[in-house]
Specification:
With about 280 residues, the protein is of the alpha/beta class. Helix content is about 45%, strand content about 15%. It has helices at about 45, 70-85, 100-110, 135-150, 150-165, 170-180, 180-190, 195-205, 225-240, 255, 260-280, and strands at about 5-10, 15-20, 25-30, 50-55, 90-95, 115-120, 215-220, 240-245. It has an 8-stranded mixed sheet. Helix 9 (about 225-240) links the parallel strand 7 and strand 8 (about 240-245). The longest helix is centred in the last third of the chain and has 22 residues, at about 260-280. It starts with a strand and ends with a helix.
Amino acid sequence: MTGKPAFVRVDGVAHHVVVEGSGPVCVLSAGLGMSWFDWDPVVPLLAPHRTLVRFDRPGHGLSQPAIAPPTAAGEAHRIAALLDGLGLPGPATVVGHSIAGFHAEAFARLHPDRTTALVLVDSSVEEHPRASRSPGSVARVLGTVLSAAGVPAALGPAVRRAAVRHDPAPTALVHRVYRTSRVLRGTLWENAHYGAVAAELLALRTTHPLPPGLPVTVLAAPEGSARWDRRQRALARRLGARYEAAVPSGHLVMKDRPEAVATVILRSGQEGASTLAEGA
């Protein structure tokens, strides 16, 4: 599924963005090391009803490398700036998968007037995050060594295929993205700052409450892990969110259960629009 591609510059970095569909705006942000095309299975279900905005974070997909460490506030700003750059300033349903759940929640807390609904798709959860003292230096050295050894070109697509079982992504796109040292470095860089971003989000929860009445849904893939189910349910309780389980499904719920993801997004957006209308 393809849409209209564009590049939007935010803080000096060109971000690859794909916009398609019509209707209220919905932002889709994928997990660590993932790309815009990982949302392809849900696009046909949503595009008739929503203006979809898919983007690659720095060092992911086709976006330029990062020039600053990721932060929760910075990722929230990134989403807002991309929407501004696209001329879509109105409120949006923000959907975050895996680590991008941190970013989507931060956006809802820091930009409540721009948030229609929040959907967390098998989101990362950290109850007691610990930030590394020097995350960037280790990631840079490892990225340099692996890139110099030719690892991305030799093994990048194979690692992607091994991580994503029955990968529906076109082979040409997988090779175009995952053979690059840029994406390897971007993934290592974002992963190195995972703990710091998680800790910052926990702090935001104490200072920036979610908007009253905001529809929040935690859509989890707990199959085979009672512990993951408990943690996702605890996240839902902490956020005052609706909890739903996508079963059967692996971590890439948008691939395994696109209809479940689409249903939650459409319902949440409708509920959020009604709440905004009542408050107007």
